[in-house]
């Protein structure tokens, strides 16, 4: 057995004595209150993204709106899944997911958008996805090996946010610049 491993007896005693801490053991290396705050900020971000995509889905109009609206709806559903994963991780760590509607927009990394023009909707959603990509990349780097489970949650979200950004860029490229007025 390597020198850096805690002996089994000590591990068992700690597990029994700290049973109320759930999955957070002495091996947890991150700043738990800060991790919970970051998770709740990401939760707010995902909820605002769901709301923005849903609004864009219901209000997209014009000649090119049908495939774009379908993409908005798909993204809204995926962002909701992200929010659920974040809320679940917060609860696992002993925190409380913050769904307070009064503070969602101030805690979100991305703003809500009420654009009426189809191109502007896509652009605003692409900007929001790029903010999420940058933010989640920084969070993954910050977590490092201190909380590998939370880091993996963010890595999974990051991969999908990158996919969303690519989808939106593709939509922008397919809509003619001289399209008819919506």
UniProtKB/TrEMBL annotation:
Cofactor(s) essential for the protein: heme b
GO cellular component, one term: cytosol
Residues given in the record as Fe cation binding sites: 46, 82, 129, 161, 164
Residue ranges constituting the Ferritin-like diiron domain according to the UniProt record: 29-179
Record-linked PROSITE patterns: FERRITIN_LIKE
Keyword Nucleus: no
GO biological process assignments: intracellular iron ion homeostasis
Domain of life of the organism encoding this protein: Bacteria
InterPro entries xref list: Dps-like, Ferritin-like, Ferritin-like_diiron, Ferritin-like_SF, Ferritin_DPS_dom
Record-linked Pfam families: Ferritin
Molecular functions (GO terms): ferric iron binding; ferroxidase activity; heme binding
Protein's name in the database: Bacterioferritin
Coiled coil: none
Alphabetized UniProt keyword annotations: Iron, Iron storage, Metal-binding
Organism lineage string: Bacteria, Bacillati, Actinomycetota, Actinomycetes, Kitasatosporales
């Amino acid at each position: 057995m390597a020198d850096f491993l805690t002996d089994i007896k000590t591990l068992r005693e700690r597990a029994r004595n700290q049973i109320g801490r759930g999955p957070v053991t002495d091996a947890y290396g991150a700043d738990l209150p800060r991790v919970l705050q970051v998770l709740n900020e990401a939760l707010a971000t995902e909820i605002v993204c769901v709301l923005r995509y849903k609004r864009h889905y219901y209000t997209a109009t014009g000649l090119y709106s049908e495939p774009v609206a379908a993409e908005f709806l798909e993204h809204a559903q995926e962002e909701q899944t992200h929010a659920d994963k974040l809320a679940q991780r917060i609860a696992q760590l002993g925190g409380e997911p913050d769904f307070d509607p009064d503070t969602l927009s101030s805690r979100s990394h991305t703003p809500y958008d009420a654009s009426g023009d189809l191109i502007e909707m896509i652009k605003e959603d692409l900007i929001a996805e790029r903010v999420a990509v940058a933010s989640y990349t920084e969070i993954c780097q910050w977590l490092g090996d201190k909380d590998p489970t939370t880091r993996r949650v963010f890595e999974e979200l990051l991969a999908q946010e990158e996919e969303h950004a690519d989808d939106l860029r593709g939509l922008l490229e397919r809509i003619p610049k001289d399209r008819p007025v919506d």
